[in-house]
């Protein structure tokens, strides 16, 4: 077996150091072991490492993990592209969340299994500087992708972060569920940015916007002359994502008749461009998302069970904002800063009563609605201080019709709901079609029918 790369192991336990040296001797050309973390800077003066393995606690009686995170940040100061694996005997959710948010490539709980530890180490080596015996100027900065990580500190968010930390290092297919506007694509991108495929493409496909006639061409590509508008050879989304991650959003909108074609590509890991007979192998990590009840759709015969089971090796559910209200303030602060910068209105103050109002609202549009509300408030405010009056929620506005309708005419009610959806999505018909649960083509037809 060819050995390459350098690893630095820092742990107060002599047994842990000896065990890891034995475990890795066939994989790394240089293994440095150290019990004293204060000597880490001296090791870094000699050069950077492909992998760092760092215990989170060095002093007896301290189990909060602060020491490990402190030394990891010191490593990042010298080596921004560092691949750091933290180890701990205190493997609770809070510790895992803090480690991943701080930039750790992985967190391994003691006592570990050799197989799990070996896999984690070789995985981050591959995603860091694999194939090179010396550090290059193209080292990936692992902290920046994680900086876009999910904002919030509620228990549901902690659970999601923990799930992400476990699944990211694998190539398992992931299904992300949740209502519109909860941030499913953000979760997908965060998983990609923590995975071995971080340096490769992340290709996002809105399945609800692809018509049946163009499905194969969009996903699998086509050869010049394969159909009327095929003026040149064109790769599909599968080929574009080769080596990286393919994200199929709103997978529940895929018509039943087209599902076998997707299933075949996923099972065989190869595609055939329209107009050719050549099988092209593809290496992708599949992440899908939906706001639809796929398991119920399977029972109703509207979605293939074998396709669902192919997609949902791991399922991550993103709860609606109304179920994680502790996240409203940090999200508000993030969006406020974003739009203060965008619209050149720095340092806007916020009346404390604003948060009482935001907490009391049920957020049918979830995080997306909160972002739009903050953007509108920043734009319209003239006083330099955001108050409750800047967040005027229309209690009668919404896609769900509650109580007694004004009339029972189906056509009028359908036209009203379509108008409300288009208004809520600010004229974005793709988004409007998604929250209405119909295809964009169907929405176009209804717009034409009602003269909207």
Explain the overall architecture.
This protein has helices at about 15-25, 40-45, 65-80, 95-100, 115-125, 145, 155-165, 185-195, 215-220, 235-240, 260-270, 295-300, 305-310, 330-340, 355-360, 365-380, 410-425, 430-435, 440-450, and strands spanning about 5-10, 30-35, 50-55, 85-90, 105-110, 175, 200-205, 220, 235, 245-250, 270, 280, 285-290, 315, 350, 385. The chain is an alpha/beta fold and about 450 residues long. Helix 3 links the parallel strand 3 (about 50-55) and strand 4. The strands form five sheets. It has a five-stranded parallel sheet with strand order 2-1-3-4-5, with helices on both faces. It starts with 5 loop residues before the first strand and ends with a helix. The chain has four domains: about 5-140, Rossmann fold, CATH 3.40.50; about 150-315, P-loop containing nucleotide triphosphate hydrolases (Rossmann fold, 3-Layer(aba) Sandwich), CATH 3.40.50; about 320-390, Orthogonal Bundle (Helicase, Ruva Protein, domain 3); about 395-450, Orthogonal Bundle (Arc Repressor Mutant, subunit A), CATH 1.10.10. The chain is about 40% helix and about 15% strand. The chain contains 19 helices and 16 strands.
